[in-house]
Amino acid sequence: MIKKLLAPNLSSKNLTRKLFLVVFLLVSLMVHAHGDLTIRIEQKTEEISKKPNDFTLYFERGFLYQQHNEYDHALKDYLKSEALGNKDKVLFFRKAEAYYLNEELDNGMLAINDYLAIDSIDVKAKKLQAQLLFSLNKYDEALLAYTFVFDNMLDIRPEDIIEYCDIILSVNNKNYNGAINAIDLALNKLGEDTFSLQLKKLDYLIASNQAENTINQFNYFIEKFNRKEFWYYKKAQFLYDVEMHAEATIALQQAATAISQLNLKFQSMKSVKELEKQIAQLEEKLNLQKS
Fold this sequence. Notes:
Elements: H1 2-5, H2 12-50, H3 55-67, H4 71-83, H5 89-101, H6 105-118, H7 123-135, H8 139-152, H9 158-171, H10 176-190, H11 195-207, H12 211-224, H13 229-241, H14 245-260, H15 264-267, H16 270-290
């Protein structure tokens, strides 16, 4: 449906209308989802009125409240469920989640430790433990917990790796090699072209003054992207910053050539025109260095 709404050759006025409709539909879906949760909470409340000592019902309503971002209500129901005899480990995990989201970190630690006392090798629980420890500024312990997650999680995601790297650098803000090594290991698992990780690796290489590896990283992006002008310019800017002026001049020429090879429609885009100005400014700086 969205593809139809964004079909090509639409007038600007029609496109605006279509985009408004897309946004309206997305917002409506979100409102519907929360409305559905409200109805389910009301239904669960009715069930509880008939069975006020059923700890399962309180747990189920608590999770509905949690999904509805009402963490105080969720925790109240979780604690009631526990008081009525619920000792299932899932309750401890949900409690820890709700405490974490509600920024009650000490209580969250108590809850996740209760869970881990039952299941000490659960990866999701170790990740939540690491996040709680990190929020409590206990970086060494957080790193230990997240290293377990990194080594054992089967469905690891790029955002997990970036979070892991944040913890590595919180323990030692100069340990860029440790963070880069974690990214390289993750790229082996997730695939080389996981661009969010490749971008983060570029940041770390620049921050750690690894000039040769940084240049290779820029070359990676230049090779992978069809639109190369931006990456040639970024490479030139870096080369200028590390005083490799001859190489920077070549990269700027490559950026200009890449722009000249673009379709005229793309050449006239505001972003490309702005890039041409940046190229000219950097060329001027390089010429000043020569004189």
